[in-house]
Amino acid sequence: xxxxxxxxxxxxxxxxxxxxxxxxxxxxxxxxxxxxxxxxxxxxxxxxxxxxxxxxxxxxxxxxxxxxxxxxxxxxxxxxxxxxxxxxxxxxxxxxxxxxxxxxxxxxxxxxxxxxxxxxxxxxxxxxxxxxxxxxxxxxxxxxxxxxxxxxxxxxxxxxxxxxxxxxxxxxxxxxxxxxxxxxxxxxxxxxxxxxxxxxxxxxxxxxxxxxxxxxxxxxxxxxxxxxxxxxxxxxxxxxxxxxxxxxxxxxxxxxxxxxxxxxxxxxxxxxxxxxxxxxxxxxxxxxxxxxxxxxxxxxxxxxxxxxxxxxxxxxxxxxxxxxx
Length: 325
Ligand code: UT7
Hints:
Layout: E1 2-11, E2 15-18, H1 19-23, H2 30-37, E3 41-44, H3 52-67, E4 76-80, H4 91-99, E5 106-110, H5 116-129, E6 135-143, E7 161-171, E8 176-182, E9 190-191, H6 206-209, E10 213-214, H7 216-237, E11 248-251, H8 256-266, H9 277-280, H10 287-297, E12 306-313, E13 317-324
Parallel strand pairs: 4-5, 4-6, 11-12
Antiparallel strand pairs: 1-7, 2-3, 6-7, 8-13, 9-10, 12-13
Bound molecules: oxa(dethia)-CoA.
């Protein structure tokens, strides 16, 4: 048994912050950000009605509506978030409560930065394959703006907020192959110390340490090296042809240049790598379900299509999946 995606949904905060908005308080420009990243604008949560928990609930409701299922039948919820507004309970428990899912449902979260959605997706597939779930909800939700350092022009301009969700239904067919890789040895490239330690708040440098710190160029090099490689390895491990057996390559939306470089290294036309980064920036674990939701809504995504999903981020971690949609 493997889970098939039968419903998709997303929530995007209402407030839009453009590159020109950043240029009002940072030494940057629309031209620089567009050229180096492909980002034109991003949505930023209001932090009152829009938090990782509330955005996860809204995205989940839409995915459940899209799937046309009764939320009471969901037996597993796994939410990926690195910017959760709660330490406990798990965001998945909040989603369970708000959707009226029964207490027969297992709920837990995963923390794995940008690849979080893929990690949650593969975890759920493990439950489905072992017969322990028949109808599951997988969510990625992030409020990156809570952790962005708005004095650091090399990092803060990249991130946006949002959530995306998918409903997976067990079917008697093989639909998911994957490779997951990590390198804690390179963790210094992209990090954020635990926030909310009031006793350390006045310590020199602590406020900065509780924001995202990124060695952009190093992370860029990592991404354009490892992402094409893991996709090639996936194709070789599971004996499929990248040119002929894949409809779309759904990559984590971190930087348009990373996606373009990956397409070039794989020798696959750029139009098979859909992008929405110009509108949302990097929404971390929400980026892949958000893109899938848009593609379903505009008719690009059709049942039976074969997709490569790939993500990368802090850890460092990077993953790639070959799925039948
Ligand atoms: O999902 C998490 C994974 N994260 C990523 O995928 C991020 C990967 N890295 C990147 O996307 C790129 O490295 C950045 C977009 C972050 C930076 O682009 P870059 O082409 O690698 O620029 P750089 O860091 O090499 O900096 C080049 C110059 C520097 O100035 P100097 O030292 O040459 O005078 C920076 O200070 O660009 C400067 N710079 C900026 N200038 C205007 C950095 N950020 C900005 C900015 N506006 N926002």
